[in-house]
Specification:
Blueprint lengths: L3 E8 L3 H12 L4 E5 L12 H6 L1 H19 L15 H25 L3 E4 L1 E8 L2 E7 L3 E11 L3 E3 L12 E2 L1 H4 L8 E5 L3 H12 L3 E5 L11 H14 L2 E3 L3 E8 L2 E7 L5 E6 L1 E4 L3 E3 L6 H4 L22 E3 L10 H15 L13 E3 L4 E6 L2 H6 L4 E7 L4 H6 L5 E7 L5 E8 L2 H13 L4 H5 L10 H10 L7
Parallel strand pairs: 1-2, 1-6, 2-3, 6-17, 8-15, 9-10, 9-15, 10-11
Antiparallel strand pairs: 4-5, 5-6, 7-16, 12-13, 13-14, 18-19, 19-22, 20-21, 21-22
Length: 476
Amino acid sequence: MANKTFDVVVIGGGPGGYIAAIRAAQLGFNTACIDEWKNDKGGPAPGGTCTNVGCIPSKALLQSSEHFEQAGHHFKDHGIGLDNLSIDVPKMLARKDTVVKQNNDGILYLFKKNKVTFFHGRGSFVKATEGGWEIKVAGKEEESVVAKHVIVATGSNARALPGVPFDEKNVLSNDGALRVGAVPKKLGVIGSGVIGLEMGSVWRRLGAEVTVLEALPVFLGAVDEQVAKEAGKAFAKQGLKIELGVKIGDIKSDKKGVTVAYTDAKGGEQKLVVDKLIVSIGRVPNTIGLNAEAVGLQLDERGAVMVDAECKTSLPNVWAVGDVVRGPMLAHKAEEEGVAVAERIAGQHGHVNFNTIPWVIYTSPEIAWVGQTEQQLKAEGRAYKAGSFPFMANGRARALGDTTGFVKFLADAKTDEILGVHIVGPFASELISEAVVAMEFKASAEDIARICHAHPSLSEATKEAALAVDKRTLNF
């Protein structure tokens, strides 16, 4: 039987892959997407790490645990009394699974709507062939397709500690951390990055005693220093214990739990005994099983697919996007690259501006930023002005009962162009979008300061921080 031939075949159905496939189909290409994620029943579950064991399920659990925390500690401030508060963890997990399935099904619907052919299985290169590339699909049945253009969007995997594999029972990756069946009495987290802080927050709110061990001497080193300090104070007040500058030693796991030997920042030998241990020390590009060597697809020393600024690989008409290439491992970065590549294949000029990609940590308080930090501007010797405004002085934040944090603007000292915006506080994930738009249009802090913002709203803190750059806040 002749192989099916497509203009574009996307390997991987995560945010970068499924979006690339949909955009390619919109542009008139005969498009297929290959993805191997399975649900509990063995059926297709497109959406990649983000939908299945990352962004989406973690936000579902964060929402559930936030409700529990509010009910237990803050409802009384609103005159709401509750007795015998309890958490049904299996029900919470079932809700999370429902949210995930809704997203899986939504992607399958979008494929049908946009006439994208979906193959459920693992895609790998076979050889160059007349008309492009032969790609094998290893699913329930093995088949091959031919693609004129290939977009590799195979994502990333959790990085394990050397010699300490994930068993997803005691030693957990992000996957296992989302499936803990009961609240652990003691939880350890290695790594104070996004995943570590978010999952640590979930289980701390539900009653776990959480200790985070971080090798770096500073907390959230990639975040603006002032924001990181504010967030650190808030987490400590909540009871999240964070130890910095530690060196991890032997880790032993048995039926009773996990014992972590480590050296603290002062050189003292310590031991942490926990019921569960989440390891969140970063992620590695997923090129296992892609059969890159068979066709000469170049990988770097990390196993990432090597690409140029336009996401072109070393092979003609083979592209790669998302976590499997250089740049930040963020779902929305992958989506933008997926769209850009589909448009480049169509002869258009797809563009991704790395400097205006927003970052978000969905803890409470939320942390969000775009552009450069104050320490980066100092390091490059750039003259800048800074302005900030606290949520404590914002009427909507007071009404919400959530006044932690602030909005901070950094602008060029001469031109007033916005160079970075940093937010720690309520709904930072939503507020950052205004800053992204402003920076894409190369707006000045004065531009935001002159725009009317609804009252009372949290977004007024953004306006006031922009006013603060010129030292003329109105409400502080």
